[in-house]
Design brief:
10 helices, mainly alpha
Length: 202
């Protein structure tokens, strides 16, 4: 399925006409510059994973959030989620969605900062999808770690290692990395192996 087809299919979950203009605004991510190559991969992963759930058990808003949450990142900034949430709410309202739906989706975007335990089914699912990469096969996770270092090549080595160690350790120290049964049963064990291996390397 092409990026365009996936975009239009996911928008259909909200019973809203898929906006061509908004898709064109998303193209910079899906055709990202080299330092954002893993962001493009991440965008496609969100869309395809949500699509796999949408016909069975996933809330529609999680799928919609996947569409809008991967807005072009502002390199060297640390408020990407806040900017993405603002962009999502504004863009969705402009496309005719009800304001309460747009605000709810903006809140889901903020949940991907992982600063608090998710307390709704939508948020739990989206956060688990967002964290699915630690549960990937070893080779894929190693590749992802390399891509993260490439994205933050402007950060000094010691500072990067400290920050990355803090992030990985925080995930590993959780009682459970994943909040939903589907992800926990399939990815928890592999995620803990990948995170442990990465921490040892740092």
């Amino acid at each position: 399925m092409t990026d365009r087809e996936q975009w239009f299919e996911t928008w259909g979950l909200l019973d809203a006409p898929p906006p061509e203009k908004l898709f064109q605004e998303r193209c910079p991510v899906l055709g990202a510059a080299p330092f954002l190559s893993h962001v493009a991969t991440y965008a496609r992963m969100l869309l395809s994973t949500c699509a796999g759930f949408s016909s069975r058990e996933a809330p529609c808003r999680s799928s919609a959030c996947a569409v809008v949450s991967t807005t072009p990142l502002r390199h060297h900034m640390d408020d990407n989620e806040e900017q993405s949430a603002y962009w999502a709410e504004k863009s969705l309202i402009a496309e005719g969605l009800e304001s309460d739906v747009a605000v709810a989706i903006g809140s889901l975007v903020l949940a991907t900062k992982h600063t608090a335990v998710s307390d709704t089914d939508d948020a739990k699912l989206l956060v688990d999808i967002d964290l699915s990469i630690p549960g990937a096969a070893e080779a894929r996770f190693i590749e992802y770690e390399r891509q993260i270092r490439q994205e933050y090549d402007w950060v000094a080595g010691d500072a990067f290692r400290q920050r990355r160690t803090d992030i990985l350790a925080a995930l590993l120290n959780r009682f459970a990395i994943y909040s939903t049964g589907w992800f926990a049963s399939r990815l928890e064990e592999q995620a803990r192996k990948n995170l442990t291996r990465s921490l040892m390397n740092y």
